Amino acid sequence: MAMKFIFWAVSCCSCIGVLSAMQQGSVIPSNKPTGEPYLGNYIIEDSCQYKICGTEYLDEFGGKQPAMSSCSGECDALSHKLVNSKFKKEFLWSKCSIMCAEKYPVKEYKTYNERISCMNECFEAFEYVAPHHRIAQACVHAACSNRIRDQTGQTAMECFSQCTHHVATRVPKDDWNTWSNLLSVADCDPIGLPGNQMDRLSCTDQTLWKDMTSQTSVSPDIHLVCLNAMCDNNVRCAKDCLHHVTQEVSQEDLPRWHQCTYSTTCTEIHSYELRKECADNCLEAHKIELRKSQELKMREAENRKRKDAEALLSGTNPILSSSVMCVVVSLVLLVIHL
Question: What is the pLDDT of residues 83-100, one digit of tens each?
Answer without folding.
Answer: 999 999 999 999 999 999
